[in-house]
Predict the 3D structure of the following.
Amino acid sequence: MREKLADALGYIRDSFIAEAAQGRKKRRPLWVGAVAAVLAVVILMNWGGLPMAVQATVVAEASASRVLEFKRSNQFASDDEWWEYYELRLSQSEDREAAVDEVLAGSDFFSDATNIFLCGSGSENRVWSPVNGYIGLAMLAETAGGSSRQQILDALGADSIETLHTQVCAVWESCYDDGNNPCTLANSLWLDEGLEYDQQIMDNLAYYHYASVYQGNLGSSRTDRAMQAWLNNNTAGMLNDSVNKVTLPDDTVLALASTIYFQAKWVDEFNPLNNTQDSFHAPDGDITCTFMNKEKIQGYYYWGDSFGAVKLNLKGNGCVWLFLPDEGKAVDDVLAEEQYMDMITGNYGDPESYSKYMMINLTMPKFDVGSSGDLKEGLQELGITDVFDIGRADFTQAVQSKTNVPVHITSVNQAVRVQVDEQGVKAAAYIEIPGAGAAAPPEEIIDFVLDRPFLFVIADYSGIPLFAGVVNEP
């Protein structure tokens, strides 16, 4: 753990410009390599989102981050002050990592949901954000009651709302941009005019979920425009085309939204002069694309029953896992076995049994992939059903409509985009929820050529999967 923290303290990003907004840091890159996602939940009718500057009453203000900001030793007046800070940051990090480990070891949500949402892609690209889904559903659990809440808790692997408080807080803080971590998060809850609410639940959202809660006119065009601005602002405009189509129906009564924006360069960037034009063997036939090449990378090669894998580190807090199915296997085979997620989260056993330190000659395509779809059926498959049933959904603990109209969810829509180039990664997503084989490689040098459909996962240092996707056509 100390080595991990020391490594983290050793990095500082030189490409981000600080920008203050809503009490949390937002960063924009000089080079736009990033990942972003939005999870938005609208209760009753179609999905909504969150305004950035709408006329509304502040019900609860998001808690200021409790994560110690990243600092270097030369920012302290003395060595004693530095070591006091270092020990406090280390203690905080150890507690947070222990809670995250409980999430990753005690819940199948990340693997099960990723399997459900990425399998069966056919010839299409498909991407989603596991951590964004987790945080958004945790917020939804806070507002729900009875079996509606219990089903979400069960899906997330939490035995109580109090346990979820600890765990979602740790996940959020693990991903939070502390000045060294290339990740920015924002959460909000919006209540329509006329809704009565439970202040304690709103305060819980503000403290445990770092969410701001507002009340205003959710059906107005002014709110729509402000909501679109909020979403674009918190995802660096990467979802502009999708976000600008988002509007709130007049009968929307409640909206949840969670955003994650991630941007990072490779620790060791690809040289564009080494790029080649070659064929990618897509399901619908070969296509010519640009491949990035790097020879003799010193690192670990991983393998499972139906795949080989490498991990590329990003500056700050993150890495990209690349999983290539064995010949005769497909990405769906990799997803179904779930070994890949156990490797990412550190739950796969002794690394010596499935990894080897080698020289790797890597060839991978530059890609820009995106997907969209309704996740309602997938969430129902995970056991979250009551919130979609007008007769069973229970949000009465959090809000009460003056018209007594049952509050429920009608759909869960997601749009995602991911780009990878010589410098790093760039991607975006939003979710709408309206009212090599089993044996070690024999050689010391291996050619890892991603010239056919493959799986990628962007994760943070603790193993939390931030984004996962299937590339069928770069």
